[in-house]
Design brief:
The complex is a heterodimer of chains A (83) and B (311).
Chain A (H helix, E strand, L loop, with lengths): L1 E4 L4 E4 L4 E2 H7 L7 E5 L2 E2 L5 E2 L4 E6 L24
Parallel strand pairs in A: 1-7
Antiparallel strand pairs in A: 1-2, 3-6, 4-5, 4-7
Chain B lengths: L11 E3 L4 E3 L1 H18 L8 E6 L3 H13 L2 E8 L3 H19 L6 E5 H5 L3 H8 L3 H19 L4 E3 L4 H13 L3 H4 L5 E2 L8 E3 L7 H10 L16 H15 L3 H14 L8 H8 L1 E2 L6 E2 L5 H13 L1
Parallel strand pairs in B: 3-4, 3-6, 4-5, 6-8
Antiparallel strand pairs in B: 1-2, 7-8, 9-10
Classes of the chains: A mainly beta (83), B alpha/beta (311).
Amino acid sequence: MQIQLSHPARTIEIKGPKKAKDLLKELNLVVEAHLIIRGNELVTEDEMLYDRDQIEIRPVISGGSPFPLFHSPVTPAPSPASA
Amino acid sequence: MNCTKCKTRAVIDLPRHNAAFCKGCFNDYVREQVSRAIKSEKMFGKDDRILVAVSGGKDSLALWDILLKIGYKADALYVNLGIGGYSEVSHAKVVQFAETVAAPIGAVLHVHTVEQEAGAGIRELAMLIHRPTCSTCGTIKRYQFNRVALEHKYDVMATGHNLDDEAARLLGNVLRWQEEYLEKQSPSLPASLEGFAKKVKPLFRLSERELAAYSVLNRIDYIVEECPMAKGARTLLYKEVLNRLETESPGTKQAFYCGFLDKQRKPDTAPSTITEKDQTILHSCTSCGQPTTADVCSYCKMMARAKTHSL
């Protein structure tokens, strides 16, 4: 089956049939940080995916706070010199 | 897997709630969580005018959508940072949502373009003043958001910070014991003085995965691409660590952040030192005299059981 991945955008081919959660495991991806989309529809982890399916594994984590309105950003680790 | 509520085919499972939902029941769940957050933190009422900060990402567009669907009066502000193609795409996504979803029910999109006012985009500005881009971006957004809220007399400003954002920030602040930031990590901050608008985070009960799912299910076209300036941000590392914990032990992020909020709310009247606590709960074992919370200490009970079995 064709798997579309992001960050960076790329397409890979993986042999089916395979359960969605096993696909994530094979790609070493954490369930909590990804959605599995077949065509235009979300699927649950126990769904079986087949060779004919077009799959997108979409990361859901965004990098920082787009509007860090309330707090200063978390400060970086102190350098060895100042530690 | 079937929907926990209506037993039709589920489209998402939520291990932290030991549940799975179909699209309809998941939308009910999301809107209920947001309503609960708004009420429990006294964020705003149905008559208040809300200004939502939108970036073109899943969280802020989902927030605008949810507030409008629940029936709140929510307009939005988009700040175009001038980060090349990334800003062009995110701007287009926001405009598309505003025209197709918000405008038909009377909601308004405000746009501030950094280049128009400052003559340069965020990257160039950051280089000119020798500051990190993310810090420059934060200052500009805070300022413009507050300015628009005050100029247009909005009652409250709302951002799309979710459970993952708050748990990751809390982890970062706890790791370095930045207590001054801990005090401010509430989902609802009042307009503490003249010139400050009230600020709220109605999505703090929902995870990043749940909000991405809401956007996909409701055909909200958001920018999936990461902001090129956020690469290597420490927040990403904290989120990764928390998601590994969440996978092993569902509910960890919620317990961490909501537990922190509960602790902040409760007045600290309990004994504070180990000595005071021990003196309150411990007394002598009736058998051997060593300290215990029960009549007979666990050692004496264990030995008594062992003697019974050996007979």
